[in-house]
Design brief:
globular; about 130 residues
Amino acid sequence: MPAFLRLPIMILTPVTIGVIAQIFFKQGMVQMGEFEMMSKGVFLHYFKIFTNPWVFVGLCMYFLSTVFWLYLISKVPLSFAYPMLSLGYVFVALASWLIYKEPISVINWTGIFIIIVGVALISHGKA
């Protein structure tokens, strides 16, 4: 692998896996429906949530994302790597918009743009 691709791949791998986990979580909760945090029978509902295949796979993906994240922060400073996780906000917003047709307001688009600019600025300071 060319050296110039190594760092972007190391950053995008845990971010992308985390985004996919969020989509799995959302799909699981679409199946499960809304619930109240402190309602009667909430523990049974939590059991059903965590055993939902979509949610369970999402949790496994988060674990996998963490493994890649630990690898990344063993190679680069945390002060560089951690802001890169904000790309997950951008990708989740775009995936939610594309997959679930969730609206993105002008304010949200502005925030997404600011995040991208911030990541670009931080990446210029490169690890």
